[in-house]
Amino acid sequence: MVDDGCSLLEALRDRLGRRSAKDGCSPQGQCGCCTVWVDGAARVACVTPVRRVAGRSVTTLEGLDPAVRDRWAGAFLDHGASQCGFCTPGIIMRLAAQEARQGGSLTEDQAESALLAHLCRCTGWQTIVEAATAPATAPATVPATAPAGAGRTRDLAAAARRARLEGGAVQAVGAEVALGLGGFADDTAPADALVAVPDAAGGWAVGETLSEARAAAGKVQGRRTTLELTWPIEIPLGDWDLRLATTWVEPAYLETDASWCLPGGEPVTPLANGGAFGAKTTSPVGRAARELADRHGRAVRVVFSREDAVRWGPKRPPLAAGVRADGTGLVRVARTAGIVEAIASVAPGLEVEEVDVPGPPTSAAIRGAGWMEAAVLLAAVGQAGVAGRAAAAGPTAAARPAAAGRARAAVSAPGGGRAEAGIGSDGGISVRVACGDPLDEVVLRSYCIGAAHMALGWVRSEGLAVDPQGEIQDLTIRSFGILRAKDMPRVEVEIEAGSGPAVNGSDAVMAAVAAAVWLADGLPERWPGRQAGGASRQ
Predict the structure, then answer these.
(1) Residues 324 and 365 in one domain
(2) Which residue segment(s) compose the domain that 166 sits in?
């Protein structure tokens, strides 16, 4: 292989076909999805020039001892530690390296420390830690290469149906998914496909290789800004019992937008094995792949960098609201198709006023956009004593923690799922969810824990700095404010038995946990509230 200055990740994926190593932030070196072993030590491949590993041993997930690989894959499947499976190959490589180095099972602290080098948006970390701390001598239930469902008491087809309900897109469930074999769009592209990336002029730069295309596009490395967060919409004036303003938040799906197409063919969906929380439903990559393939007469793969996904990917619309104890009030929200209807679906007593604000694109397809915020407001204002406490303390009332035992909230989602969440005195989260036939409790529990993680970050720590012209300035994964494994409290999930039609349950969990956390934190008027233990932007 000729050294043309490419990274180890590009060499592995595009030149050698080793696609277990994933590109989630390349080349920021911050998500851990591209982790491999170099001389037995875990290293991120996206920031490692291929010339630096000349004469050294490089091991990818494909090269692990099959027994080790199968055991890790089985443990991740058994504990629900993998949902889309994009981040888990790199996580397994790091955990397996640490386990091999110390010669035994990992402790919870060791696993959480190892995970500091990684980002997983789906699982909420807890199930990964559970899989990592399972006894190293425990065999996988079945080999990772066995057919789906073979030898297991779980019905993996039913598990996949539950995953689709929760994730909003077709998703496989099996040991192979933890190994990154879920069929992601960029993994299935032909080896000889041209590569296209966005250029600075609103078009596409095309090259024979990813590095060539990025050089032609003039890719500028993303950075983390020193700008403070802003809240783009002012809370409306009024005699409100509860007030809330939200800011820009990054969906932060790990698999950046990608597609490929043959001339005259149909483009591969960017939603392959993952719904990206609704953020890819309008992605331009499929359309671009088709047009470019027809133009060049060759297969073309179109890929976003992490910076592209942040700049051009849609966000949930920020809003500002004032609510009365009777459920009436006013919500001002960034103008977004469908957002008025989403809010009205759970809160018909709220008047909605759309406003134009400079900033990134928004979408009502983002997970629960609009209705979740409305449901949280109603759940919080409905708690006994909230109105009196707010009136007594004035408009900044919201800084006082809720009384012990009062940080509980219940939410019914428009789709029929119901959830109740509580925050314990130790910060732990308890969840009860009812969503019809569970289909597979392992998958449902995993999604509920992931939803709790997302809710906690939404209320406490997540946000994007946007300048007065509406340009996003936070372009690195570490600047999004997503909670790390060490920041995440224990989540206990109780699944209500049900024989009715299966419906989504984790969206109701996310809203209920957000309401309970907000109550526990004293109802700060702005999200994120930057409570202790939640600020991972540092």
Answers:
(1) yes
(2) 64-182
The answer to whether residue 291 is domain-embedded is: yes
State both tokens at 11. Answer: 């060499």
CB 178 within 8 A of CB 88: yes
> Domain boundary residue among 61, 82, 103?
61
Ordered strands of the 41-44 beta sheet: 41-44, 35-38, 58-59
Residue 243: half-sphere exposure toward Cβ, Cα within 13 Å: 21
Which residue type does 290 have? Answer: R
Phi, psi of 379 (to 5 degrees): -65, -40
Residue 476: both structure tokens together:
């690195």
How many domains is the chain partitioned into structurally? 4
Tokens of 23: 């590109």
Residue 231 contacts residue 320 (beta carbons within 8 Å): yes
Q: Are 495 and 427 in contact (CB under 8 A)?
A: no
What is the tens place of the pLDDT at every residue in 247-302? 999 999 999 999 999 999 999 999 988 889 999 999 999 999 999 999 999 999 99
Q: SS3 of 513, please?
A: helix
In tens, the pLDDT along 9-45 reads 999 999 999 999 999 998 999 999 999 999 999 999 9
Helix, strand, coil: what percent of the chain each, to 5? 35, 15, 50
Q: What local confidence, expressed as pLDDT, does residue 138 receive? A: 52
Give yes or no: residues 39 and 109 share one domain: no
- Residue 481 falls in which region: left (phi positive, over 0), alpha (psi -120 to 50) or beta: left
Calpha distance 342→357 (Å, rounded): 19
- Alpha-carbon distance 465 to 471, whole Å? 9
Q: Are strands 329-334 and 350-355 parallel, antiparallel or unpaired?
A: parallel
Phi, psi of 478 (to 5 degrees): -70, -10
Full-model pTM: 0.93
Q: How far is CA 379 from the centre of its chain?
A: 25
